[in-house]
Structure formats: structure tokens, C-alpha cells
Amino acid sequence: MLVFGHPKIPCPQFVRVKQVEQIAKISAKHCIYFKASGAYAFDLANHCTKQQVKYAVGIENLKEFVWMINFKPAYLVVYKKPENYQNLADDYLLDARILWVIDHEEQVLEALKMRIDGVIFSQILSFNPIVSQDMLE
Question: Which whole number is the average pLDDT over 96-115?
Fold first, then answer.
């Protein structure tokens, strides 16, 4: 099980972007992150796929799930009912990993019981400046 954002477990920093132009400025050691509900989500996903950039996309409903899986993200970040998305990912043999956004360490065991691919602590996403100077190559 993948765990992102735990203070004792190293992980890449997730860097939120809102425009395609920002992606080229971010170091490859970071993971691009954006929400599927954003105005430029399709452009961002398409760019990342074409440029083979590893990225995570936050999805809030099944429609966003369907659209975004076609762009082959590394991670699908879900906020509610992760088991529904995990079942779909398993049924369709998706390469993308489902990451459930959690607030507390105790939720890791819940995710384990639901057989979710991984968890990501909400702090790692909320404490996420949109491209700061130290994230540039």
C-alpha cells in the first residue's frame, strides 16, 4: 500500500498546477497535481500524457474518473468513497493507482481493509503552493 504525506515515510512533493506553462518549470522529482474540475484539466492531462510527465489528478465524481483515466495518470486522488473507484480501477485493470485523501493516521487501516492502492494525507495537498521558486529545476 502506498502512503504519501506521512512524516516518517519519504515521498515526492505534489505540486499543484493550474496552467500547462507551469509544468515545464517544475523539477522532475516532484509529482504534478491538479483537479479534474479545473478549467484546464483536459489540457493539463493531455500535455502530461504527451510529454510523459508523471502526474496525479483529483477527481470528485464518476464522470471525472471516466474522462481522466483516458489520459493515463499515475494517480487518481479521490476524496470520498474510495472503494467505488478502486473497484472500477481493478475491474478495468487500470495502471493508475487510487489514492484516498485522508486526515488521520487511523484511516490507513480503513484503506487497507478496503484494499485501496494507497492513501495521501490531506496536508500534503493543502500545504501545496502553486509552484514556488524551490520547485523549479
Answer: 97
Q: What mean pLDDT do residues 93-102 have? A: 97
CA–CA distance, 54 with 126 (Å, rounded to integer): 20
Percent of the chain with pLDDT over 70: 92
Q: What is the mean pLDDT of residues 13-27?
A: 93
User: Under 8 Å CB-to-CB from 111, ≥6 apart: which residues?
Assistant: 1, 82, 100, 102, 118, 119
Residue 80 and residue 62: Cα distance in Å, rounded?
A: 11
The span from the CA of 84 to the CA of 76, in Å, is: 12
> Cell triple for residue 27?
523539477
Comparing CA positions, the residue from 75, 18, 27, 76 lying closest to residue 47 is 18
User: What domains are there in the chain, each with its CATH number?
Assistant: 2-132 (3.20.20.70)
Across the range 10-35, mean pLDDT stands at 94
Q: Contact, 95 vs 77, CB < 8 A? A: no
Distance between CA atoms of residues 23 and 21, nearest Å: 6
* Cα(17)–Cα(116) distance, integer angstroms: 25
